[in-house]
Amino acid sequence: KAGVVVAIDGPSGSGKSSTSRGVAQRCGLEYLDTGAMYRAITHWMLEQDVDVSDPNAVAQHVHRPRIAMGRDPQMPTVSVDDRDVAAEIRSEWVTGQVSAVSAVPEVRQRLVADQRSLIDAAVESGNGIVVEGRDITTVVAPHADVKLYLTASTQARASRRSDERQTEDVAATQAALERRDRLDSTRSTSPLTQTEDAVELDTTGYTLAEVIDVVADLVAQVR
Ligand code: C5P
């Protein structure tokens, strides 16, 4: 069999990234963080002073930045025009604006096309790939071999995020996270939605190792 495609969607803080990387590492697959691509394009727009609240302005510049994604799960990288932006794309500045940019249809068209070429390449030339995001099971790779929807209670998601960011303010983190989820699930183009045929995994109360075991088993079944 050619390489497998593992598609993982879910809201922020559901454990997508750690799970996806862990599964990719365990199963010898590539790893693609599509959220990092939306963050990278947002960062570029903000640096260029594009008014990101104006969808027409965003659409006009969408093809200018060159985004390169390193797909090694041990050390995923993201660069824009040959500059490493891995740290900058996690800033509050970018996090606060990314939902507006990712709601622009032209942005999604461009990035979905980029994502599909990376997936095709991983399937043709290697073992396959784990892809995480919001519309992977529904739009980017609806025919993936394994389709997962990760959830966790809002409190669990907020406290994981606060640990990651090393902030004490769990309440503020939770408010920001709920705002982003609301924007991501109510936009008209490819909102975050759960499909019938995706396996739902509620990670509340489970350790990362336990979740990785479950998903790695699902991957082993389709290989
Ligand atoms: O996964 P992460 O939180 O880094 O994603 C950042 C943002 O990128 C999300 O809040 C969402 O607006 C957007 N996104 C998206 N579609 C994806 C992945 C991320 O719209 N497949």
UniProtKB/TrEMBL annotation:
Domain of life: Bacteria
Catalytic reactions on record: dCMP + ATP = dCDP + ADP; CMP + ATP = CDP + ADP
Enzyme class: transferase
Disordered: annotated segments: 154-196
Locations listed in the record: Cytoplasm
Residues the entry annotates as binding ATP: 10-18
GO molecular function: kinase activity
The Cytidylate kinase domain, residue ranges: 6-220
EC nos: 2.7.4.25
InterPro entries in the record: Cytidylate_kin, Cytidylate_kinase_dom, P-loop_NTPase
Alphabetic keyword roster: ATP-binding, Cytoplasm, Kinase, Nucleotide-binding, Transferase
Main location: cytoplasm
Keyword Kinase attached: yes
Similarity remark: Belongs to the cytidylate kinase family. Type 1 subfamily.
UniProt cross-references to PANTHER family, sorted A to Z: CYTIDYLATE KINASE, CYTIDYLATE KINASE/PANTOATE-BETA-ALANINE LIGASE
Annotated protein name in UniProt: Cytidylate kinase
Record organism: Lipingzhangella rawalii
Higher taxonomy: Bacteria, Bacillati, Actinomycetota, Actinomycetes, Streptosporangiales
Record gene name: cmk
